[in-house]
Design brief:
Blueprint (H helix, E strand, L loop, with lengths): L3 H12 L5 H8 L3 H9 L19 H14 L10 H11 L7 H17 L14 E13 L2 E12 L4 E7 L4 H15 L2 E2 L1 E4 L6 E4 L5 E3 L1 H10 L2 E4 L9 H14 L5 E2 L2 H15 L11 H10 L1 E2 L10 E6 L5 E4 L4 E4 L8 E6 L3 E5 L5 E6 L7 E3 L3 H9 L15 H7 L4 H18 L1 H14 L4 H12 L24 H10 L6
Parallel strand pairs: 1-5, 1-9, 5-8, 13-17
Antiparallel strand pairs: 1-2, 2-3, 4-10, 6-7, 11-14, 12-13, 14-15, 15-16
Helix pairs in contact: 2-3, 4-6, 5-6, 12-14, 13-15, 14-15, 14-16, 15-16
C-alpha cells in the first residue's frame, strides 16, 4: 500500500501532467496495476479496521494457564515437556468446570508451542487454490538418448485447482529450458494461465529486495509480458507454499520416468509426455467426485489465449574467440570450437536447450554444437573446418595448437608423412568427416594403422569398405588343375634391336 504522499504524486502525474500509466509506473518503479488502482480510486476515506476474529474463544479462560505451562517447558528436558494430550488431561484434572474438547486444546497447543519454541509464527498461504493458477518447478531424472545416459532435469507445471500437471524433459536447467518448456506446455493446452508461481531460482531472480520485491532477468520479464501472466514468487526457504507442484514432481517421476526412459529423439519423447499427462488426467480427483480433466476445464476458463507473435526462445550473446578459434561458456568450463579462420574474432551465439549455434556477423550459421551441461570441464570440437584449413597449409599443422588436441591415433598416422602427403591425408579426412562425421573418419585411421597403411588412397579404400557396404571378398582358391605359370620378365634391349631392324621411321 502506498503512502498518501505517493498516491498524490501518482494522481498529480496522471491528471495534471497527463503522463501515461506505463510512464508513471516506470518512473516511480511501481507495478502498473498499482498505478491504475490509485488513478481509478474514488473513495479516500480511511479504511475501517476489521476486528480480529477470536481464535478458539471457548478456550479463552484457560489460555493463560496453557501459556504458563509451555513457558515452564522451556526449562524442562525435551522428553519431559507437555504434549497436547498432557495439557488436555491436566486441564480436566485441575478445572472441574472445563468442558472443551481435545481437538480444541490440540489446535491451540500446536500454534502456541510453535510461537514459543520457534519464535514468531510464520504465516502460511491458504491451501485452497483458484482456477487459472499454475505452479512451476524443476525435477531431476536420468534418461538415455541414442544410447547415451544423461543426468537431466524436467520442468513441471501443475494446476493446483484441478491437480493436473505437465512435464518436459531437458538435459539441464537454464533459462532456455525454462522458456522452451513453458512455451511447449502453453501451446499444448492452447492457453496461458493467468498466474504462475515460481521459487527464487537464479535463472529468474537476480535479487530479493527487502519487502519481498524481486529483481528478475530481462529475458524472463520479456517472456512474462509477452505471454501476459502474473508471476508470484515464494518466500525463500518456504517450499510448502507451492507444495502441489513439488508433489507433482515426485508423482510424474515415479509414474512417467520409471524405468529410465530410452529414446532416439528428445523432442519426440517430450511430445509423448504431454499426451501421457492428458491420459493421466482421466483419473478421479483425490478430493472431488470429478476427474482431473473435468476440473481442468475451470482452469482453462481462467486462462487466456496465446500471443499471435511467437517469442524467440533462443538466448543470444556475442563472444570473442581465442587464437585457435574457440570460445568458452559456463564459467569457462565448457569449450566450443568455431574455425581457425575466425581466430580472435567476435562471433554471435544463439543458444537453445540442446544446441549452441555459432553465427557470423550476418547471422549465418557457421557451426552447431550440442550444448554441454554440468560443472566438469568439457569440450565440443567440430573438426571439419580445422581439417579443411590445415589441408591447405600442412606445414603449419604442428605449430597451430590444433595438433595437440588431435587424438593419439591421428597423430600417430600423420607422424613421418611429408608435407605433401600430410595435406592429402587431411583433405581426405575432411571429406570423410563431411560425409559421416569425425568419429567414422577416426575409425578409418585406426583401421589403417592396423593394416600398416599410411597414405591418402589407402584411407579412401578402407573407408569405402567400412562405410559403403562394399563386401570384403576372401582370397580366391587356386585349384590343382591350373598350372603354375612362371612370371615373364621383359628385356627392354630386345625392343631396341627390333626397332633398329625396322629402319628409320617416315614422317
Amino acid at each position: 500500500m502506498l503512502t498518501m504522499e505517493e498516491i498524490q504524486d501518482v494522481r498529480f502525474r496522471y491528471f495534471v501532467k497527463g503522463e501515461k500509466i506505463f510512464h508513471i509506473a516506470t518512473e516511480l518503479k511501481l507495478d502498473r496495476k498499482t498505478v491504475q488502482k490509485y488513478v481509478d480510486m474514488s473513495d479516500f476515506n480511511e479504511p475501517v479496521v476489521k476486528p480480529e476474529k477470536r481464535f478458539l474463544p471457548k478456550l479463552d479462560p484457560y489460555k493463560a494457564t496453557i501459556d504458563r505451562w509451555l513457558e515452564e517447558d522451556k526449562k524442562a528436558p525435551r522428553k519431559q515437556r507437555h504434549t497436547a494430550r498432557r495439557v488436555f488431561n491436566r486441564l480436566k484434572a485441575e478445572f472441574p468446570e472445563f468442558n472443551c474438547s481435545y481437538r480444541t486444546v490440540a489446535s491451540y497447543y500446536v500454534i502456541r508451542r510453535k510461537e514459543l519454541f520457534s519464535g514468531a509464527a510464520t504465516g502460511f498461504l491458504p491451501l485452497e487454490h483458484h482456477p487459472g493458477e499454475a505452479q512451476v518447478d524443476f525435477g531431476t531424472a536420468d534418461y538415455y538418448e541414442n544410447g547415451t545416459r544423461i543426468s537431466g532435469k524436467y520442468l513441471e507445471v501443475s494446476f493446483p485447482y484441478s491437480n493436473k500437471g505437465y512435464l518436459q524433459l531437458f538435459p539441464g536447467e537454464n533459462m532456455e529450458c525454462l522458456l522452451e518448456g513453458l512455451d511447449s506446455i502453453f501451446r499444448h493446452i492452447g492457453a496461458v494461465p493467468d498466474e504462475l508461481w515460481f521459487d527464487n531460482a537464479k535463472t529468474i531472480v537476480t535479487k530479493v529486495i527487502r519487502g519481498g520485491k524481486r529483481e528478475t532477468t530481462e529475458r524472463f520479464d520479456r517472456f512474462r509480458e509477452h505471454y501476459r501472466f502474473h508471476a508470484v514468487f515464494m518466500n525463500p526457504g518456504e517450499g510448502h507454499e507451492k507444495g502441489n507442484v513439488e508433489n507433482k514432481v515426485g508423482y510424474h517421476r515415479r509414474n512417467l520416468l520409471v524405468p529410465i526412459p530410452r529414446f532416439d529423439s528428445l523432442v519426440d519423447f517430450n511430445r509423448e509426455l504431454l499426451t501421457k499427462c492428458d491420459s493421466d488426467a482421466e483419473r478421479e480427483h483425490y478430493r472431488h467426485n470429478e476427474t482431473l480433466a473435468g476440473l481442468f476445464l475451470e482452469d482453462m476458463k481462467r486462462s487466456h489465449g496465446l500471443p499471435e507473435i511467437p517469442f524467440d526462445l533462443g538466448g543470444r550473446r556475442s563472444v570473442v574467440t581465442n587464437n585457435w578459434g574457440k570460445f568458452y561458456l559456463h564459467k569457462s568450463m565448457h569449450e566450443y570450437s568455431v574455425s581457425p579462420k575466425y581466430a580472435n574474432m567476435a562471433v554471435n551465439l544463439k543458444m537453445t536447450s540442446s544446441f549452441v549455434i555459432v553465427l557470423d556477423e550476418n547471422y549465418r550459421e557457421i557451426v552447431r554444437h550440442r550444448r554441454l551441461y554440468g560443472d566438469a570441464k568439457q569440450q565440443s570440437m567440430d573438426w571439419l573446418p580445422y581439417l579443411r584449413q590445415l589441408s591447405l597449409r600442412p606445414r603449419a599443422l604442428k605449430y597451430s595448437g590444433v595438433y595437440d588436441l588431435m587424438p593419439s591415433d591421428l597423430k600417430q598416422f600423420l607422424e613421418g608423412l611429408s608435407n605433401t602427403e600430410t595435406g592429402k591425408v587431411l583433405k581426405v579426412l575432411a571429406e570423410l568427416t563431411d560425409r559421416t562425421g569425425f568419429d567414422s573418419a577416426l575409425h578409418t585411421i585406426k583401421e589403417a594403422l592396423g593394416y600398416g597403411a599410411g597414405d591418402a588412397e589407402s584411407l579412401k579404400n578402407l573407408y569405402r569398405r567400412l562405410y559403403a557396404d562394399v563386401p570384403e571378398l576372401p582370397p580366391m582358391a587356386v585349384g590343382s588343375s591350373i598350372p603354375n605359370v612362371e612370371p615373364m620378365h621383359s628385356n627392354i634391349s630386345d625392343y631396341d634391336v627390333f626397332l633398329k631392324k625396322g629402319g628409320v621411321a617416315h614422317a
